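help with this record:
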Amino acid sequence: MLKMLRFILSPVIIIIAAYGLITKNSEFQSLMILLLGLMMLVMGLEEFQKERKTYGWLLVVVFLFSIFVSVQGFLLN
């Protein structure tokens, strides 16, 4: 389930990033950061399942930081 979610999020993030690079439009940057954060959460949960707690906690902290950044981006735009 988590692996499938990661494989769904990856192309969506790449498409949004490519759109931003090609059009030089940063309108969807906050959405991309939010989706990247969700992908970090999924990867962190996968690491917890593999009993690698250090990497799991690191990815969860990165998820929390990216959620904070994306919320700030949504509020400022």
In short: Residues 53-76 form the longest helix (24 residues). The chain has three helices and no strands. The helical segments are 2-23, 29-49, 53-76. Residues 2-76 form one domain.
